[in-house]
Amino acid sequence: MKHAKIMDIGDVVKRSGLPASTLRFYEDKGLIQSVGRNGLRRLFDADILERLALISLGRNAGFSLDEISRMLTPHGPRIDRELLAAKADELDRNIKMLMAMRDGLRHAAECPAPRHLECPTFQRLLHVAGKKGRHERRKPVGIAS
Amino acid sequence: MKHAKIMDIGDVVKRSGLPASTLRFYEDKGLIQSVGRNGLRRLFDADILERLALISLGRNAGFSLDEISRMLTPHGPRIDRELLAAKADELDRNIKMLMAMRDGLRHAAECPAPRHLECPTFQRLLHVAGKKGRHERRKPVGIAS
DNA sequence: TTACAAGCTCAAGTCAACTTGAGGTCAAGA
DNA sequence: TCTTGACCTCAAGTTGACTTGAGCTTGTAA
Known about the structure:
7 strands, disordered C terminus, homodimer, three-stranded antiparallel beta sheet, DNA-binding
C-alpha cells in the first residue's frame, strides 16, 4: 500500500503559493478535500498540488469555480469534451478580438495623429469593438496582469 | 454654427445598445456628459455614441473605467502612449497564454486518454499554467462570451 | 386635460472569488 | 509545564461594474 506523503496546510501554502484562506474556501466549495485532521488541523495528501494546478489551469482558461467543480470529481478529472471544445472555441474568438485590440493599441501608441477618431485604422477598430457582445454580460478571461 | 443632433436617453439606448442605467452610471462617473436637460430628462449630443464606442473599446482592451476616464477628457481622447503600449504588451502576453490554453483544451477535448494527468501534453500545460501569476490578482480581459 | 410611458433620484442589491477579523484551540518546542 | 504560533470557525467585508427598486416628475399623445 502506498500512502502518499501527507502535508499540513502550511506546506500546501508554501508549495502551491495559494493562501490558506483560499484553500479553506476551495474545500468549502468542494473543489478540494483534506484527507483528515490532526486535532483541528487539516491534513492534505501530496496530490492536492496537482489538483490545485488543475484548478489554476481551469481558472486561467476562463472556467468559473462552479464549472471546474463540475468537471473535477473527487477522484480526478472527468472531462466534458464538448464543454472543453466550446471553451476552446470561445478562447479562440477572444484571442482574435484581443489581437485586434492589441494592434489597435499599438497603433494608437505609435500613430502621431492627435485625433485618433479621425484615423481610419482607429475608426475600423472602433467599429469592430462596437459590434461585440453588446448585451451580453462580460466575463473574465482570467489572466493575471 | 453646427449644432449636432440632440437625442434623449432612449435614443442613446437604442443606438448604443447600452441600458439607460449604464448611461446614468457613466455620467455619474464622469465618463460621459449630457449636454443639458429637457425638464428632468437628459439630452445627449449625437457624438456620445462615438464616445461610448471608445469606452467599449477600452473595456474590451482590459482598461478599467477609472483608467478610461483618465484617458478620455471631456472633449475627446487624450492618449497616454506609454500606458497604451504597456497594455498592448500585456494583451500580447495574455494572448500567448490563451493560445496555450486553447491548445490545451483542444487537446483535452480530443485526446482519448482517460487520464490526462498522465499525458505529457497535459503535463506540460499544467506546468505552464502553474507558473502564471500566482500571487497576482486576476483581472478580466473582458470579452463577452 | 388627463393619462401614462418614459424619465428621474438615491439607496441598496448583485455577482464571483476571495480576504479579513474576531475570538477560540491546540501541538510541539524550550 | 508553559508559551506561542500555526491553525481553526464563522460572519462579514471587498472590489468593479453595474442593476434593481421604490417612489416621484413630466413631456406628449389622445
